[in-house]
Specification:
Layout (H helix, E strand, L loop, with lengths): L1 H11 L7 H32 L2 H17 L6 H26 L3 H23 L8 H25 L3 H10 L2
Helix pairs in contact: 1-4, 2-3, 2-4, 4-5, 4-6, 5-6
């Protein structure tokens, strides 16, 4: 869904794909925005656990305890997951926007879609299969690590392959 929205937005507002800086910034912004939302929800959960009393507090703490008990260095999971997710958001959107800039968007769209699909599929499977609290969260992070790692060379490639801003403008002027 996110990658489809990026494609539609780029096709409607071609300036999004004008240069590599913008293309990378769109992806970093999307990943950072998601990180801020997740971080805010986490802080609210902690505050709720600290301020609520009785049964509600126990329920909030009990929901996080199994994952914390099965995961060494549990406090590092969030930052590691967010770095991986931001890399994936950035590369997937850069691929889509590069495709729009080059006027050949099908394979870059599919590659960006695949990166985000891997990320979301692993996370979805972990939650639906009840793995949270049963296995170390680091195993789940290890499963999404390849998507994050492949995002780095993909980003470098996108930046190198981005057409000059003047070339993108010339194509837009030729095809209004």
């Amino acid at each position: 869904f996110e990658i489809g929205v990026t494609l539609v937005a780029a096709l409607l507002w071609s300036k999004m794909a004008q240069d590599s800086g913008r293309g990378v910034s769109v992806g970093m912004g999307a990943g950072a925005f998601e990180a801020i939302l997740i971080g805010a929800l986490s802080v609210l959960g902690v505050l709720a656990a600290l301020t609520m009393g009785g049964q509600i507090r126990e329920q909030l703490l009990a929901s996080a305890a199994p994952a914390a008990e099965t995961t060494p260095l549990f406090w590092l999971v969030g930052p590691v997951e967010r770095v991986t997710a931001i890399l994936c958001h950035t590369s997937s959107r850069a691929l889509v926007l590069l495709g729009v800039a080059r006027r050949r968007w099908l394979w870059p769209f599919l590659a960006g879609f695949l990166i985000m699909t891997i990320l979301d599929a692993v996370a979805g499977y972990a939650h639906l299969a009840g793995l949270m609290g049963e296995v170390s969260v680091w195993w789940i992070e290890l499963a999404i690590a390849p998507a994050g790692l492949v995002s780095i060379p993909l980003l470098v490639w996108c930046i190198r392959e981005w057409p000059e801003a003047s070339a993108v403008s010339a194509v837009e002027n030729a095809h209004p």
